[in-house]
Amino acid sequence: MGFTITEKIIMKNTGQTSLKPGDLTTVNVDSAMVHDIFIPFVVSKFADMGFEKVWDPDKIVLIYDHLVPTSFIEDSRHHKIGDEFAAAHGIKAVYRSEGICHQLMPELRHATPGQIVFGTDSHTTTYGAVGSLSTGIGYTEMAAIFGTGRLWIKVPPTIKFVINGELPPGVYAKDIILRILGDIGADGAAYKAMEFAGTTIENLSVASRMTLCNMAIEAGAKFGVVAPDEKTFAFSGVDGSPYQDLRSDDDAVYEQVIEYDASTFQPVAACPSNVDNIKGITDLVGTRIDQGFIGSCTNGRIEDLAVAASILQGRKIAPFTKLIVTPASRSILAEAVEKGYIKTFIEAGAIIQPPACGLCCGRSGGIVSDGERVIATNNRNFLGRMGSPKSEIFLASPATVAASVIEGKIADPRQYLHVGEAHEPPSLP
């Protein structure tokens, strides 16, 4: 009997030669990330547990992103506590305005193939795109990791999603994961691993794979993972030879295998107020919107900005409609400036925000009022996520958002794209 990639990473980490779903085991943590919202709670719990020093300052990462720029006095206190803790324990990986945690961790190579990574945010599943086993935990568990470098987990069963073929023009990774969520439901992978495979996945960029793994948690998954390949190794800056076995065996045992023909996918959106309330864009065309949002840890990468800019080039957003654009990191912002995407957004009438989480988590930077309707590229649309609980949020791809703000109503992006160019990725690893 073979093993899945999830089981192999756990076995390699623990030195075990065999395990199965449901087994309890204790893993050695390769990297631990805390963002600014949770820093005070982790620090306080760390002291309560009686720890005097962290287990390894070089494996701890502090990222200020949810409260950047600070909007309230209390926000600044979070950052002050983080700075003081880092200084006291020799933690050097502190990023104060570099971008969103789930972009920075793989981008800055704090999450690489074969590692086990924990973070104080549910969308830590994102790093599965580079072949890490990563998941979100609470501040009590993180405080324990800070002190010991270890954490127990239960080995999850795996659902394998096999997607083969070429995606139609105007269809992107966001459409894939929303379709899957619609099919299996918001609890369809509760405490399971979601493994993405097939020729379609192989042809996706690392950035697009990050979109898939990012939203695995929206089905309740403990992990989202893609087997590392040459694209992964190039992105992560590692020699791939030690990681060639980090893929599921042909005779691995899955709880379920779900197969898709890529040609059947179409642009879709998650409708208010559940992430699995999925409808085809053609069924939603003409629905009035007040605001569009392009960004977040789900879709704030350079290829996302590229496709949105290609649609907005030479066009203006509709009257009485807002568009907010938030690149996922400082480096992505710089590249978007260099390539002219930011200029395109500004000329179209968009507002450009610094790389941070404010609008996505409903704290700052464009939160919406009663009765407003938003189409956004982020990962959650429950009531009150981006402001008023009396607002409505649709989730869609950057292309769909860009097309929609031009019209001031939900629009099909395919009418704004040149056939043959619609889904061609930028030249990225």
Total domains = 2
**CATH fold node name of the largest domain:** Aconitase, domain 3
**Reading side by side through the largest sheet, how are the strands ordered?**
4-3-2-5-6
Tally of DSSP helical segments: 14
The CATH top-level class label of the largest domain: Alpha Beta
Low-confidence stretches: 419-429
Major pleated sheet: 5 strands, parallel
Computed CA radius of gyration, to the nearest angstrom: 21 Å
Fraction of residues in helix? 25-40%
> Architecture of the largest domain, CATH level 2?
2-Layer Sandwich
CATH superfamily of the largest domain: Aconitase, domain 3
Question: Mean pLDDT, nearest integer?
Answer: 95
Structural class: alpha/beta
Terminal CA distance reads 33 Å
Query: Roughly what fraction of the amino acids lie in strands?
Result: 15-25%
* Shape designation: globular
Q: What is the number of beta strands? A: 18
Topology, please?
Layout: H1 5-14, E1 24-28, E2 31-35, H2 39-48, E3 60-63, H3 73-89, E4 94-95, H4 101-107, E5 116-119, E6 133-136, H5 139-148, E7 150-154, E8 158-164, H6 173-184, E9 193-197, H7 199-203, H8 206-214, E10 223-226, H9 230-236, E11 256-261, E12 268-270, E13 278-280, E14 291-295, H10 296-299, H11 302-312, E15 322-326, H12 330-338, H13 341-348, E16 351-352, E17 373-376, E18 392-395, H14 398-407
Parallel strand pairs: 2-3, 2-5, 3-4, 5-6, 8-9, 8-11, 9-10, 14-15, 14-17, 15-16, 17-18
Antiparallel strand pairs: 1-7, 12-13
Helix pairs in contact: 2-5, 6-8, 11-13, 11-14
